[in-house]
Amino acid sequence: MTDYLKAVFDMLGPGEERYADPAAWLSLEEELGRTLPADYKQIVDAYAPVQINEHLILSHPSSHWWNLGEKIRSASEVWADSTWESYITGPDDDPRVFCRLPQLSFGTAEGLIPIATTDQGAAVFVAPWVHGFPDGVVVQGSEGDWVGHPMTFAEWLYRYLIGEEMAGWDSKAFYPGPVCLEYPPAGPDQPTRQAYGPDRGM
């Protein structure tokens, strides 16, 4: 059985853990009323804030740039006021159905929490249940389509990075070679920095 967290770390290389801070996670989780998945927090602590392979953006709760708490709050407000349900065509693509929720809320303990985005317009959430799987991943793709992934965030990220369609319809974005990690500026007048993971043999 694949250890997807290890597979992600092997693919991305040693993490810098620039902002790892248990207190920041505790404060954010108290605000949300629930704990976030352990594998997600490990990946975020190791690399975030970062843009992975030019598209996927991960934020961190203790960083000034791309602060996760601010991202969750602002995105949840936008989603709550959006017409997210207008893209649903039936029970198979209705997050209320595959997440077992009578009503859909955002940024709440019982609802969808936005945890990542892509620059192509996809939004990635974690939900208490996805097709019966605890702490599964929910995505609304750039075309507005909803899909539930009954798997850990680490498995979702691994599959995303090897080019599977994990961020909505027609979302495959495979880049051969080492994974590119792009870090935002560390402070005013600082440049964006790029680093690369090890050779993947892909």
Task: Explain what this protein looks like in three dimensions.
The protein has helices at residues 4-12, 22-32, 38-47, 68-80, 95-98, 153-161; strands at residues 50-52, 56-58, 113-118, 123-130, 133-140, 146-149, 180-183, 193-196. The protein is 28% helix and 20% strand. It contains six helices and eight strands. It is globular and about 45 Å long. It is an alpha+beta fold and 202 residues long. It has an eight-stranded antiparallel beta sheet. Helix 1 (4-12) packs across helix 6.
Brief characterization of the structure:
This protein has 202 residues and is an alpha+beta fold. The chain is 28% helix and 20% strand.
Tertiary shape: globular
The number of E-state strands comes to 8
Mean pLDDT: 92
**Secondary-structure class:** alpha+beta
Alpha carbon gyration radius: 16 Å
Assembly level? single chain
Strand order of the largest sheet: 6-5-4-3-2-1-7-8
**Individual helix count:** 6
* Helix and strand element order: HHHEEHHEEEEHEE
